[in-house]
Specification:
The complex is a heterodimer of chains A (223) and B (200).
Chain A: H1 2-17, H2 23-41, H3 45-68, H4 70-77, H5 80-85, H6 91-120, H7 125-152, H8 160-185, H9 193-219
Helix pairs in contact in A: 1-6, 2-3, 2-6, 3-6, 3-7, 3-8, 6-7, 6-9, 7-8, 7-9, 8-9
Chain B: E1 2-12, E2 15-26, E3 30-34, H1 41-48, E4 56-62, E5 74-77, H2 89-100, H3 107-113, H4 129-142, E6 147-151, H5 159-174, E7 178-182, E8 192-195
Parallel strand pairs in B: 3-7, 3-8, 5-6, 6-7
Antiparallel strand pairs in B: 1-2, 1-4
Helix pairs in contact in B: 2-3, 2-4, 3-4
The chains are: A mainly alpha (223), B alpha/beta (200).
């Protein structure tokens, strides 16, 4: 079973890295959102530094949403999803393997790019670190929450919009605690660990519930 | 091993497709399913594969491992070839073999059997429709599964490839396998027949 899991995980990583895989789409979108922000807000360094973490987090959330619609749709279109359902690998583990590969090719690069882009927003080093750490924990949560929507809209053409509307509200708690943990790291009345622990809990919860819910959605899809 | 289908009925979006369908298929036998478009041939195969719920009736496999669900004893070849344009034929077969387990032939042997050895490392995007179909057929022989569910397997195949396909099925049946083939074309191996009724 482990071999099957690794085979699927590696296939999805390989597909994401090749032409048409779309691994770079979210990253470029993230880059664009963050770079245009200083132009829109104006050259007020203090203001940028204050709203910088929020900009990075909102941009990361939107960049995650943009690639999610292909998570199961690509396999549904070419018939691979039928065969994945007939494999000895239980469906929740199929979702887990695909979700992890998707996070590594789309979510992880966002977290790693955040400190570089943070410089554009005049963030201080402490804030850069805090944003990166919270994004490292928060982006897998976003991916696995999004997997539920991706599974529900797998059979739909142009399902991306419905997916965003479906999962955006569920992502808001992650956003709130991600940003409040970052703010707490920069000083304030609450310690960093308080909101950060809740963020970690949300991520763990998303792992389990996202995996199970998405596999149920695929199982019950009429097709 | 024996496949038993009992009192099967299918309703798709409120419309009855077929009802009270029953048959059994013994080890080493093939079943050709014919009938006009919309008679439910594809639905029947998908129900047997466990991809579609039946509204009534049961499908079971007798004499197999009781722990293994039917879906894991069956190969399903649908209308779509389930290929990724970015992966080469070799990578494709290697992936499905590692995912499904129970290896039968090596990916390279399978590619040779279906006549795609020369394209083993080319991205599948460059394959023609017939070559894609042959690659999908090669997937049947890299992993051992006793029941083959084939939906229009010979579409896009030329005469030589149809002969190759028949040889594959005959070999599979001789090894004690079973096959259900939905088709409009005549098949040149002995098989039982199931004619699904046309609807007015």
């Amino acid at each position: 079973m482990m071999a099957a899991f690794i085979a699927l995980f590696r296939r999805d990583l390989a597909l994401a890295a090749r032409i048409g895989g779309g691994a770079g789409v979210g990253l470029v979108f993230f880059l664009m959102l963050v770079t245009i922000m200083p132009f829109a807000v104006g050259p007020d360094m203090a203001l940028l530094a204050r709203i910088g973490p929020a900009i990075l987090w909102v941009a990361a959330l939107l960049a995650t949403l943009i690639g999610l619609d292909r998570l199961f749709q690509a396999d549904d279109e070419d018939g691979s999803l039928d065969l994945l359902r007939m494999s000895p690998l239980p469906l929740p583990l199929v979702v887990l393997a695909k979700g992890l590969a998707h996070w590594i090719s789309t979510g992880l690069p966002l977290a790693l790019a955040a400190p570089v882009l943070g410089l554009l927003l005049a963030l201080e080093p402490k804030a850069l670190l805090a944003v990166t750490v919270t994004l490292l924990v928060g982006t897998p949560a976003l991916t696995f929450i999004g997997a539920i929507g991706a599974a529900l809209t797998a059979g739909m053409r142009r399902g991306g919009l419905i997916l965003s509307v479906l999962v955006m509200p569920l992502m808001i708690p992650v956003l709130i605690f991600g940003i409040s943990a970052t703010s707490a790291a920069l000083g304030g009345s609450i310690p960093f660990m308080t909101p950060f622990s809740i963020l970690v809990a949300l991520a763990l919860f998303a792992f389990v519930s996202g995996t199970v819910a998405a596999s149920l959605a695929i199982q019950n899809a009429e097709g | 091993m024996r496949l038993v289908v009992d009192g099967l009925a299918s309703i798709r979006s409120g419309r009855p497709v077929f009802s009270n369908l029953g048959f059994s298929l013994n080890s080493g036998a093939a079943l050709a399913i014919t009938g006009p478009n919309g008679a439910g041939k594809s639905s029947l195969l998908r129900i047997v594969a466990g991809l579609l719920p039946a509204s009534e009736g049961k499908v079971r496999l007798e004499g197999g491992d009781a722990e293994t669900p039917l879906a894991e004893e069956a190969h399903y070849l649908g209308h779509r070839d389930a290929l990724k344009p970015a992966l080469s034929p070799f990578e494709t077969l290697l992936f499905w073999q590692s995912l499904f387990g129970r290896p039968l032939r090596s990916p390279l042997e399978a590619l040779e059997t279906v006549g795609l050895a020369h394209a083993a490392n080319l991205p599948s995007a460059y394959l023609s429709a017939g070559q894609r179909r042959r690659l999908a057929l090669a997937r049947l022989i890299v992993t051992h599964r006793p029941l083959w569910l084939l939906d229009e397997p010979t579409s896009a195949l030329d005469a030589a490839s149809e002969t190759m396909f028949s040889a594959l099925v005959i070999e599979h049946l001789a090894a004690g396998g079973m096959a259900m083939v939905a088709t409009h074309a005549p098949l040149d191996f002995p098989c039982e027949r199931l004619v699904m009724g046309g609807r007015p």
